[in-house]
Amino acid sequence: xxxxxxxxxxxxxxxxxxVDFADPRALRAQIAEFANANxxxxxxxxxxxxxxxxxxxSPKVPVRVYRPAxxxxxxxxxxxxxxxxxxxxxxxxxxxACLDLVRGLGVVIVSVEYRLAPxxxxxxxxEDCYAVLEWIAKAAGDLGIDPTRLAAHGVSAGGxxxxxxxxxxxxxxxxxxxxxxxxxxxxxxxxxxxxTRRFVDTPLWNRPNAVISWNAYLGEGVPGTPDVSPYAAPAxxxxxxxxxxxxxxxxxxxxxxxxxxxxxxxxxxxRPRPRSxxxxxxxxxxxxxxxxxxxxxxxxxRAGSCAARPxxxxxxxx
Length: 318
Known about the structure:
8 strands, 8 helices, globular, eight-stranded mixed β-sheet
């Protein structure tokens, strides 16, 4: 089909690679190769790789912690959840974005390497994110994070997981979030938006890839059926759940996407907020001396994903 691209972006469109989610292993290998060939600039940021406790009965979850070099105070914390249609991606692909956010906002970021579908369908990835959120809350003092200023951040599938995480931690009575940033989040498995119907061969993301993504995450044939959990597809929740109310109450939600236009593939678009918008929820730097946890200092590493068994019980533990 022919699409109307923004004139400033139209020249770039032919350069975009074809992305086929039908072979996620091959796609992961391509992304890992790209990530390894583009090493990030770590100037001004301390980066540490850790493995933290995972969900009960599951292996530890790899995380990457980014902290302003020389930080001597308590500051806001951000749990970053990478995108990739629930099937691809890793903490390495978000290195540049996380480094920019740390330099620009002076916050501490913990990026999570959650388990990927189809090998580990819902709720495995979400449970990994929740386990890391719990760990951040417990380790906040060592990380230099003010636990009252903890936010979730994600784009694409990461945005969908961030929205689901806000619902899950609220309903479990877990660590409260003061803010969530949802960048063109993948939140609706029904694929009924106008853009989802029209964008059948757009670059990078389109309806065929969205169908593969949701089938991998929920199970073949499950997307679009009546009983899909709102913890899997947050758009399935009621208006109260989606009204910008992360756990703990009083939190804020900043959706970001093409203004006024739902994104293809069950993604929710909204009017982009200013980059400094986390401040509206008290998401701002502070000062109070804290130590730095022990772990492996980061050296630009191979991109990859972790593997473990999914858990199937939500929202309660046990």
